[in-house]
Amino acid sequence: MIVTIMILQFVNRHDEMQALKQLLARGKAAIVLLYGRRRVGKTRLIQEFMKDKRGLYFYVPNAEEKTILAEFSSVVEGEFFKGFRFSDFASFLEYLAEKFESNDVIAVDEFQRLTNVNGAISMLQKYWDERLSKSRCLLILSGSSIGAIRRVALRGDAPLYGRRTLTLKIEPLKYLDLFEWFRNYSPEELVSIYACFGGTPAYLEHVDENLSVEDNIVEKILSKRSPLHDEPEMLLMEEIRMPQRYMDILSAIARGKNTVSEIADVVGLSRENTTTYLKTLEILDLIERVTPVTEREAKRGIYRIRDPFFSFWFGFVRPNRRQLELGLEKNVWQSIKEEFNAHLGLVFEDICAEILTEMAKRNLLPLQVSKIGKWWWKETEIDIVGLRGGKALAVEAKWTELNYQEAKKLISQLNIKAKQIQNVEESILGIIAKKIEDKEKIRNGGFIALDLQDMAKIRSKNRNMHVQPSNA
After folding, report:
1. Do 23 and 140 meet the contact criterion of CB atoms below 8 Å apart?
2. What angle do CA 29, 34, 40 make, to 5 degrees?
3. CA dist., res. 125 & res. 54, Å (int)
4. How far is it, in rounded angstroms, from Cα 454 to Cα 462?
5. How buried is residue 162: exposed, middle or buried, by Cβ count under 10 Å (0-12/13-18/19+)?
6. Neighbouring residues of 275: CB distance < 8 A, sequence distance ≥ 6
7. Which of 470, 467, 437, 464 is closest to 451 using CA atoms?
8. Cβ–Cβ < 8 Å for 374, 388
9. DSSP strand pairing (164-169 vs 30-35)
């Protein structure tokens, strides 16, 4: 039995599906740990994988043992009699042990909630070691409380550590995936959709393509009647008992306070306590620490919110909660438009890094880079730098339309900055913008020049994008 959920689209989970199929084809028992933030599409992935296979799906409610066992019993009630109930967790595991002999896949969704059943995780470990591991069935353990999953499966002292055969971390979709999801929006409109709704499938399901992008933002996020209006707060409350301080930190980062000192000053904490809170938010995958691409272990890292939806929410929804509660979402939208354009610029930088990463995977870049990231040194900053040995790919991202002269001027300025990258002897320069006039002329000069039109082509797997390196 599979639970029906709201998500209708199933986009770009090819690698995960392939990994599961290959594991099943081995014909050996295996534990698959499948995890990621809630609503990112884990259950849908399990559904798709189990479609043509013999299998059982169990969902663990956030409840006490009696309710959990009642949920499990309802799945298999048809095999026994109406009103059948497992008497305890051990009897459920006995049932699983029998079913492992005749099924391809057994999935336990939100498995980390089994910690609500005294001794359940240890019992599962024991049954796996002694019985389940001797079959050929896959046991998929899926969960969304990342902190809890670390405690039961990912840390070195966790009960299930070392027993998993495959670990799949399910990430939100990327900008390029939205071309497959939405058919009616232009590449520029998709940037705005991505900048507000991010790549979480359950959030994207709220977008109505019959509405303009602005109307979607107002009605689906800003409006107090929308399910997404308080989503970040609900997620934090599920992960953390007292989320207020964490929300203050996320608000500070959304406002551009991205160093430990700046964040500590804004929220009124010591540096030590701030670092502890930041580490928790990193574990929860809500923020990340970014360092210059040339210095992986640099002390001068900055913090950023990983998900565009959370960045938008903490930047524009939370600061305007009072007005939004009064039903003034349209007024709020008019007041934040200018700031929103700056938000688009930051998200566009991430999209450009995504594009270059995709091109690197397809061998479409003039330099086969081994790593891509942001670079800065003192007052000098380059949006995206790719490195390979003593060579660099240096690219500026501009959320604007550029004519030929403007593009050439930016490349000239970029050339000066690129010469400051440590241990780099030669740089290939480029620019990515909303639209670039005469971009073929720029490319003929040996530079990279890409705009939204090219991104759409890249999504459709156009491979005629190779650019010769510059001799400049």
Report:
1. no
2. 150
3. 23
4. 9
5. exposed
6. 260
7. 437
8. no
9. parallel
pLDDT, one tens digit per residue, over 335-393 is 999 999 999 999 999 999 999 999 999 999 999 999 999 999 989 999 999 999 899 99
**Distance separating alpha carbons of residues 395 and 403, to the nearest angstrom:** 17
**At which residue do the structure tokens 């966790």 appear?**
158
> 127, 157 in Cβ contact below 8 A?
no
Radius of gyration of the chain (CA): 25
Element (H, E) at 287: strand 287-290
**Closest to 126 (Cα-Cα) out of 167, 85, 166, 163:** 163
pTM: 0.88
Give the 3-state secondary structure percentages of the chain, helix then strand then coil, rounded to 5: 50, 15, 35
Q: Which two tokens stand for residue 236?
A: 């934090």
Domains of the chain: 14-169 (3.40.50.300), 176-347 (1.10.10.10), 362-459 (3.40.1350.10)
Q: Select from 70, 166, 153 the least CA-distant residue to 111.
A: 153
Answer whether 58's CB lies under 8 Å from 71's CB: yes
Phi and psi torsions of 184, nearest 5°: -100, -15
Alpha-carbon distance of 84 to 72, in angstroms, equals: 10
- If one counts every other C-beta atom within 10 angstroms of the C-beta of residue 340, the result is 19
- Find the distance separating the first CA and the last CA of the chain, reported in whole Å: 63
- Give the helix/strand (H/E) hosting 105: strand 105-109
A 10 A CB-CB count for 170 gives 18
- 250 C-beta neighbours (distance < 10 Å), count: 26
pLDDT in tens, 390-436: 999 999 999 999 999 999 999 999 999 999 999 999 999 999 999 99
252: exposed, middle or buried (C-beta count within 10 Å: 0-12, 13-18, 19+)? buried
- Residues 6+ positions from 83 with CB-CB distance below 8 Å: 77
